[in-house]
Amino acid sequence: MVIREYSKVELVFSSSESEAVKIALVNLRRDLIRTLDCSVTAGGIIRILVGTVGNLPELDKKADISKLQAEDGTYRKEAFLIQEKEGELLIAGTDRRGTIYGIYDFCEWLGVSPWYFFADVPVRRRSEVVIENGYCKVDYPSVEYRGIFINDEEELEHWVWRYMGETTIGVKTYEKIFELLLRLKLNYIWPAMHVNSFNLKQENGALANRMGIVVGTSHCDMLMRSNNREWKPWLAKKGYTDVEYDFSIPGRNREILKEYWRESVEQNRDFEVSYTVGMRGIHDSGFETKSLEGLTGEKLLKAKIELLESVMAAQQEILSETLDTEPMKTFVPYKEVLELYDNGLKVPEDLTLIWTNDNYGYVRRYPGEKEKARKSGNGIYYHNSYWAPPGASYLFICSIPMSHTRNELLKAYKEGIQKVWVTNFGAIKPLEQQLSFYAKLAWEADGDDNRDLETFDETIFLTRWLDSMFTGQPGKAAAALLLEFDQLTNARKLEHMDDDCFSQTAFGDEAAARMHRYEYICSELEKIYENLPEQEKDAFFQMILMKVQAAYFTNGMYYYADRSRLCIRQGKNSDAKRYTDKSHAFDLARRKLLYYYNHVMSNGKWNGILTPEDFPPPRTAMYPSCRVPLHAAADKLIVTCWNNQSELTFTDSTHGNAKWIELANAGDGALSYKIEKPEWLEIVGALPTEGTLTKETRFVFSVIPQTKSAEALHSENAPNDAKSSLVRHGEIAVFSGTQKVCTIPVTDKTDDVKARVQKDAEDAKLTKAVALHVAIEDSGRCVIEAENGTEVSSLDAAGWKLISNLGRSQGSLLEAEIPGAQCPARSI
Hints:
Layout: E1 2-4, E2 8-12, H1 19-36, E3 39-40, E4 46-52, H2 57-62, E5 80-85, E6 88-93, H3 96-110, E7 128-130, E8 136-139, E9 145-149, H4 154-164, H5 171-183, E10 188-190, H6 202-211, E11 214-215, H7 227-238, H8 252-268, E12 274-276, H9 297-322, E13 328-331, H10 336-342, E14 351-356, H11 369-372, E15 378-383, H12 402-414, E16 420-424, H13 432-444, H14 458-467, H15 475-490, H16 510-531, H17 534-570, H18 573-600, E17 637-641, E18 648-650, E19 659-665, E20 671-676, E21 681-683, E22 690-693, E23 697-703, H19 710-713, H20 720-724, E24 728-736, E25 739-748, H21 750-763, H22 768-771, E26 800-803, E27 813-816
Parallel strand pairs: 2-3, 2-4, 4-6, 9-10, 9-16, 10-11, 12-13, 13-14, 14-15, 15-16, 18-25
Antiparallel strand pairs: 1-7, 5-6, 5-8, 17-19, 19-23, 20-22, 20-24, 21-23, 24-25, 26-27
Helix pairs in contact: 1-3, 5-6, 8-9, 14-15, 15-16, 16-17, 17-18
């Protein structure tokens, strides 16, 4: 089957389809026009039949809809089928969302990215689309409710004012958000609750229901009420005074609370929503229990449990009296409520338990065997964005590695958390990559071998995701860079950067090594950016390049600020001023980056949505402390050595044998220098051993290997002096003019260590591949990468598993896994 440019296409569907499906069909029509410039009309040569099972008899007869059934013969929820049969394209869904997902799956295949609006990914023009004869795709979700939480959304609100023409986040904005979610095959949302209340405009809920999105609320907002922006306005509208959000106060206060909840349920009774049951304080504060004052210890705990049980009973009564259908109901044992749950709180069986992570992507608690058996199932509230006091937030970008998210959420799925997944994605941008990955992971979490799994390997996911949006197939190259970037940035989130986070006088200058890696990642992604067509550059910049440049610039700000203070301590006054200027230059570069994102990129479309420095507490690290000299210093040659050592010893030739010294002038003038070294040392980069210094200069030395036979020297018959001849000794002498400033002893043990390792490996009968990764002590430390700790084949038997792309800054992570283990409640 071929759909050619300018073809006449007929969309066949039933008038009895839900409005949600009809909205998706309107978008399909638009996407056919945008990609192929088709004429969508009755009687078209190309026929596309679309429908929900049971609505279009012709489709039910032609499509192999039995493929949408589970083993027990029932239709799977939200399943869809796309099939070519006898020259026609058939798209069938088991329910309204299944049909919508089938439509949008085909739209993406045509060349319309889910991110065409929210990240300006250009629609791909096609001359034709070829669908293989007999093609058939069947797909369905693993997790029943897959959603996001729009939270800490002030920036989204600011953008809405400027671009969407709304005074606050409302139907125009939610229409775009809901379409994005459906194109990503998500179905659930906790809407914005900082800047407004979703309930205050009934059109919001009506739109969600009309488009097929399920709406719920978070752990602190009960029965669809958003207390932060709804409680006080509701009281004012009612004319109620002397009322507190406290169920412990009996009589009038309690009855008004019930009225508040009941009106919310009545407003949403015709919509597909989920209701959070229980009670916490307004806007994420603790459970209010004023009437229990005076109680302490066990008596207070018991009274709180009884009070919360009475709250849930009252809410359950409101739901049963108001609704004709059974909605999803959730209970979130979070913060102080978790303590009540662990001490005997009785939660009705028809409430889905929503567990939480620690705000940084680590799941804190899994359901036990009794909780797994609950008919209402279990869910998870997860974070890829978090607002907290300075030094704890991460709202600028998300650096949680995808491997981390995958590992934690798949463990949750394996432990029975399969009913609801909802993740905090802040204001959506700039978390396009993380949101896309999460949506796909929630869809395929069961790991079914019949699926074309993408998220179980981050490289595969990123490669396909990027190649689907950008020409020239940049995915493979960019994927490797982005995976390294995530690990590097997750070691210290850019929002958490601070003075001296990474040492410049230990580990061979750990901070400089990070800067070099950032510089490389940034430059390589900039090359990809420059090679893209002009119309694709804005999308690549906002989804990929911006966050990498932001992290590079932020780390540069702090690296050079740290270096300015280090230079003052070392007496390098002139360089301290120079590094202060460089820190300020990186700060300016970041500000220019933010200006470009908001005011230039996409013609200023996203102005206001990325402003990490604008309101307190700031959502990123700012103003690193620099130190400049207060007076000029006289010219003087200053020598500093690797790791502040007084001598250099080279031991490891396999994993790099470079070490350095630094020469600098304390004053502002030019200063002559001369370096004398052993002939078996070479200077990397061909810097001259004699010349004039005007700024701090690092001379990196590496060892030239010996040519002697290691086997002969370490044979049993070799004399002792021959064995020891693999170790070389010498010194580096540094002169200022004719005056010797210092002498640095140098020892080369690389060939000696290599020979000993080789002999020990042979004695232990290690393979060459294993021997290559033997850990060698250097400068008082020995580093063993996770994947080299033992043979991978023996990990599972030992209760360990290897997780790629999750080591600190690089490499893999080894994680212990004990099936069935339960964490004591007191340690949660």
